[in-house]
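In the current project phase, work has continued on tokenised descriptions of protein folds. One protein thus recorded appears below exactly as we store it.

——
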Amino acid sequence: MKTALIEPFFATLKAATPEPRTELEYTSHFELLTAVLLSAQATDVSVNKATRKLFAVANTPQAMLDLGQEALEGYIQTIGLFRSKARHLIATCEILLQQHGGQVPDTREELQQLPGVGRKTANVVLNIAFGQPTMAVDTHIFRVGNRTGLAPGKTPLAVEMQLLKRVPPAYAVDSHHWLILLGRYVCQARKPRCWECVVAPYCDHAPKTPTPP
């Protein structure tokens, strides 16, 4: 994608969705951290279904510890890798209470010291909870970055670095959401829906006059 097309690409996404939001359900920074940790290799729909019941009984680090790992597993057993995620979440709660006064830290370094929290999870929390212009590259953003030509790269980190360099500052905070929504619902893996894509005119992949199959 030519540099001159990047600004109108994001301006078009913004016009279509002026205030993009994560589809994970949460009411606090801790609930968000929990939901993102649980969402690895799982859908937002499955996570929300589990956390609606979980957060009703445990939505703070102390309440989660009081619940205990075995009971926690019962609430999240419909989510993939639920045993390891429960173990990580319990350990994370202990660290939050012991080192951060029960609060979710606002730096990548501190977040990545929490069990089960990698760079992508940390970036999501920093972006959504604290409004930082980070770029969490999941499978959708990795695909969109490469397919559109916006940020080609062979690894998620390479795509992230390209996006941080190429996304205009005015769109930096919300760009993560726009690209996820684009990849999830339009620029899909097997059959991209180019004929209904609002940014097809700027995309390296889309035909100039996309039509339905």
Summary: The two ends are 24 Å apart (CA to CA). The longest helix spans residues 82-99. Residues 107 and 126 are 7 Å apart (CA to CA).
